[in-house]
Design brief:
The protein is mainly alpha-helical and 114 residues long. Helix content is 56%, strand content 9%. It folds into two domains: 1-77, Winged helix-like DNA-binding domain superfamily/Winged helix DNA-binding domain (Arc Repressor Mutant, subunit A), CATH 1.10.10; 83-114, no CATH class.
């Protein structure tokens, strides 16, 4: 497989390589949410980072922003919803194999926590 700059697989890895992108997508799986709800569900994300993330995902066609006079909500597009399938599969993989993954040359959970 060729990983040139315009390769679709590379584009997908770039999109998912950002820490917050998959987290926000998964936080929206149950339906649209207001920014304050997203921050509460996600935890640990600064408002500025959340704004940058949803804008990035909106630009990629994965999230839609709906604004009315008194509220803003973010929800998944059909394309964004379709991405939940591989994200959830990756989550199952981590549940099964996460303790075996080597990080920084160390084995298992020790490398992930330490």
């Amino acid at each position: 497989m060729n990983f040139l700059a315009d390769c679709r697989a590379r584009q997908a890895f770039d999109l998912l390589g950002n820490t917050w992108n998959p987290v926000v997508l998964l936080a929206l799986r149950d339906g649209p949410r207001r920014p304050v709800e997203l921050r509460r569900v996600i935890g640990g994300i600064r408002p500025k980072v959340l704004t940058e993330t949803v804008r990035r995902l909106e630009g990629a066609g994965l999230v839609v922003r709906t604004a009315s006079r008194d509220r803003v909500e973010y929800g998944l597009t059909e394309v964004g919803r379709s991405l939940l399938v591989p994200l959830e599969a990756l989550g199952r993989w981590v549940d099964e194999w996460g303790d075996e993954v080597r990080v920084d040359g160390r084995e298992g959970r020790e490398g992930l926590d330490g």
